[in-house]
Amino acid sequence: MSIEANKQVVTKFWAAFSVSDFDTALTLLGEDLKWWVAGDFAISGTYSKKQFGDLVKGLLDDVPKGIRVTPQIMTAEEDRVAMVAESYGKRKNGKIYNNKYHILHFIRDGKIIEAREYMDTKHCNEILCS
């Protein structure tokens, strides 16, 4: 796939994610997905496609309107798409989740097959995981 096509896969994934259309978002993930989240807290680690799907679908229980992820910078080379983004979501308890990310996506055959997600882990742990 071309670099622009790879960027479109990432753009479509986050557009679907941001409106809580997880069924569509998950179709853009490869079956052998490895989604890694940085840090040493509740959601750190490596997720399979099923595990990642369960994680994001579980967000709706606590963040009823979902978490909007807005890409701010995107650059691509070969099979990789790097994205800087900001998120926003409001938990049922009124706490606002507003984080900054750098996510490196690896694309194969029109699917995200690997992601490396870096964020403010302290904010995520204090607001989203407490």
TrEMBL record:
UniProt cross-references to Gene3D superfamilies, sorted A to Z: 3.10.450.50
Stated name of the protein: SnoaL-like domain-containing protein
Pfam families, per the entry: SnoaL_2 (PF12680)
PANTHER family: BLR2505 PROTEIN
SUPFAM superfamilies the record matches: NTF2-like
Residues covered by the SnoaL-like domain: 10-114
